[in-house]
Design a protein that fits this description.
Chain lengths: 331, 427
């Protein structure tokens, strides 16, 4: 067992690209679910829209990357409106079902052979659509220390990614502590009370859906740029569920909790996976019990159990405040 | 805990099969290898054998064999090792007017996980898609749609009953289908029971394990703790993820057919072609639905369950044992869903993703009909089933689920409470 390698991989993942992606997805969900009480199960759809919006315009239409970012933001606003108009007047569980369906629609259209020409079918899109971004990379070599290891491109993604996260967190912090943010929390606690004060709840919910969706699509930007490819099946329902796990782990309705949640989530996942993998390859774990290819499956099983236990025993997460969060549908 | 029971039960089956394989491995290399073969018979749409059709089989470590069918339309390839093989039919050899019913399925994958067991591979040959008239296609798709609607309906009824009595939106409901499908597969393909015996056992075990035990050891304690509905919803998501990957861990990622009925020929009934297994499973499914409806309408327990759905506190105050009702609903709901899983397994084969693929359709059906209304679930299911199949007349087959989901969203705009739902269910 090469413990130094395990530690290096784990710590790199803890502050790595995936952590940034999940942190952004969860910050968006925090806006939806934590502050406004919207049960959005279509966050993967927002990430997919973001990812495809940077890849498709650049590769298929030759549009500059910076304009593609704007297209992505515009598309996620449209997607939020499409989702919100029919569902925001409905009860929480209806919203959950419709959003999960909408995200699935996005994924199935993206992977269909019908739109193969533009969206790349089930293989997705691979290409140098992030060239303009990586041209700005000041790092000529990667980072290679005993505890952290990134190649030059990842280092640039990580640096800009965390800058973006910090910026968004700051904006979130300002927003949720403003009168607007208090109104959002009031909607979460009791819609009818807010309505009786003469506020248009529907409109405020829509604002929350749009803002959280845009933040989610930023996660999609990072996902697509960091890999220089977009695979439709990466944006399945599981992505949304894991973003929820991240959010609940950190504690919903706390500005910083998605970051902490994402770090812990990826720390645990990569640590467990590396230990199992090392164990299997070095025959510490017998072959008949877990094969090399089954390590990933064990990882997902543990994630499932983890989500269940977390929800049962500590629904407020690590930093959450039980009083702050009414985790209940108003039937 | 329910998971522990589940684990020990399924892993017993798994271990017995894998230890069997391990015991055989040493001898296999010299004695049994020549007996393991991939084989098949290629016939045209009328069942006449097609000779001289080329089949190319490739496998691990550079294995490759090119054979042709003999006068009986039969081909076989002896394979030396375990592993993943793929057989490709040479479509150019087919006589004119004959084509693969699904031209994209010219290559079939076969995972040989145990030597000494021959695998039969099937290339379904038909007249080719373009030959069928619009009327024939519509008739065929209508029948397919009703059958799909029935499968969805069986599962949706259970989901709706559970939602009605406990308020739980169960994202792990699809895994009940998968579990029953896997049980049917293990009982019939590994333990070699006839499907007609394996299927009832799978349904009963499904009702007991996914229904009774799941409620007793997971959901009932959670209700006692006073866990919120949204929290329970998230718990069910965690359970679904765990079970899905657990099934993948045990079963692998491929779709497997039950060996007994793998290549059953269809019957021509007027405009439609339908297999006997499909007719039989559908009729039994209808009987199940009639049984469940009578149970709801006529029996004391059924009436009590509707009372609980209406107002648990009032039901409890008028002497109804709410926990007992919920238990009955779970057992019934899981039994129905298990049978839905059996239908899918018998007709299309089983994979670990089966339940997940169905889940969104089930949700769409339930939402369409109105969450918490039993009749609504059935109506919604038939509509979704028909829509999914008939939409392929106009849109590509791969997008058929997209069409169904878009309809769901459109109907919610016009009639948010669902077709048969009541106004009070909207927020």
């Amino acid at each position: 067992m090469d413990f130094l390698f395990i530690i290096q991989q784990t710590l790199s993942a803890t502050i790595g690209v995936n952590t940034i992606i999940f942190a952004l997805a969860a910050i968006g969900l925090n806006m939806h679910f934590g502050y406004t009480g919207l049960l959005n199960f279509g966050q993967a759809g927002f990430l997919a829209i973001g990812a495809y919006s940077v890849a498709v315009p650049v590769i298929s239409f030759g549009i500059p990357l910076w304009i593609a970012f704007l297209i992505g933001i515009f598309n996620s606003i449209i997607f939020a409106l499409l989702l919100g108009v029919p569902t925001l007047r409905l009860r929480a569980d209806y919203l959950a079902i419709v959003t999960i369906a909408a995200a699935e629609i996005v994924r199935q259209i993206a992977r269909s052979a019908t739109f193969n020409e533009w969206l790349g079918g089930s293989d997705g899109i691979t290409g140098k659509f992030g060239k303009e971004f990586f041209d700005l990379n000041p790092f000529k070599t990667g980072l290679d220390t005993p505890i952290l290891r990134f190649n030059a491109n990842d280092l640039w993604v990580v640096l800009t990614g965390w800058t973006l996260v910090a910026l968004i967190i700051f904006i979130m912090w300002v927003m949720v502590n403003s009168p607007w943010g208090r109104l959002m929390r009031a909607i979460r606690e009791d819609e009818d009370a807010v309505r009786s004060l003469g506020k248009n709840v529907y409109l405020y919910k829509m604002q929350s859906l749009i803002i959280g969706g845009i933040i989610g699509s930023f996660g999609g930007f990072v996902y697509a740029l960091s890999r220089q490819s977009v695979q439709p099946d990466n944006y399945g329902t599981a992505l949304t569920f894991f973003a929820y796990t991240v959010l609940i782990l950190g504690g919903a309705a706390r500005v910083f909790s998605p970051i902490v949640g994402a770090m812990i989530f990826w720390f645990l996942i990569v640590f467990i996976e590396q230990v199992l993998r090392e164990g299997v390859t070095n025959n510490v774990i017998p072959d008949w019990l877990i094969g090399v290819n089954q390590v990933g499956q064990i990882r997902f099983m543990l994630m499932g159990i983890g989500l269940m236990l977390l929800m049962i025993f500590r629904p407020q997460g690590i930093f959450g405040d039980k009083k702050e969060l009414a985790l209940d549908a108003k039937a | 805990m329910v998971m522990l029971t589940l684990t020990s039960l399924t892993s017993t089956i798994f271990l017995s099969s894998s230890s069997l394989a391990a015991d055989e491995t040493p001898e296999v290399a010299n004695t049994q290898s020549s007996e393991t073969k991939l084989y098949g018979i290629i016939t045209d749409k009328d069942g006449k054998p097609l000779p001289g059709i080329g089949v190319l089989v490739v496998g691990p470590s550079g294995f490759s064999a090119d054979v042709s069918t003999d006068a009986q339309g039969a081909w076989e390839v002896a394979i030396p090792t375990k592993g993943s093989f793929s057989a490709t039919i040479n479509q150019d050899d087919l006589p004119s007017g004959q084509g693969l019913t699904d031209p994209t399925k010219a290559t079939i994958k076969a995972n040989v996980f145990m030597l000494g067991v021959d695998l039969r591979l099937l290339f379904p040959i038909g007249p080719g898609v373009e030959k069928a008239s619009l009327l024939e296609r519509s008739a065929q798709l209508t029948v397919d749609g009703i059958i799909l609607g029935l499968v969805i309906g069986l599962a949706a009824l259970g989901l709706n009953l559970i939602f009605g009595t406990t308020g739980l939106t169960n994202f792990a409901h699809g895994e009940i289908l998968t579990f029953a499908g896997l049980l049917t597969y293990y009982l019939s393909a590994i333990i070699k029971l006839p499907v007609i015996v394996a299927a009832p056992i799978a349904v009963i075990l499904g009702a007991f394990i996914s229904g009774y035990l799941q409620d007793r050891y997971l959901w009932r304690p959670l209700r006692k703790r006073g866990t919120g509905l949204i929290a329970m919803l998230v718990v069910s998501i965690g359970l679904a993820i765990f079970l899905r990957y657990f099934f993948l861990f045990l079963f692998g990622g491929d779709t497997r057919q039950l060996p007994q009925y793998a290549g059953q020929a269809g019957l021509e009934l007027g405009l439609v072609n339908i297999t006997p297994k499909s007719i039989l499973t559908t009729i039994i499914g209808v009987l199940f639905i009639i049984f469940a409806t009578l149970w709801l309408l006529r029996t004391r327990m059924g009436k009590a369950s509707r009372a609980v759905a209406d107002n648990p506190a009032l039901a409890s105050a008028s002497g109804i044992d709410v926990q007992k009702v919920i238990r009955a609903v779970w057992i019934l709901g899981a039994g129905l869903a298990s049978y839905a899983g059996v239908i899918v397994t018998v007709n299309q084969g089983v994979s670990f993703l089966m339940g997940q693929d169905m889940l969104l359709l089930i949700f769409a059906a339930v939402t369409l009909g109105g969450l918490g209304t039993a009749n609504g679930a059935l109506v919604g299911s038939i509509i979704i089933g028909l829509f999914v199949q008939l939409s392929t007349l106009f849109i590509p087959t791969e997008l058929k689920y997209v069409g169904a989901l878009i309809v769901l969203i459109l109907i919610l705009i016009v009639r948010p409470q669902g077709i048969l739902g009541r106004k009070e269910r909207i927020g």
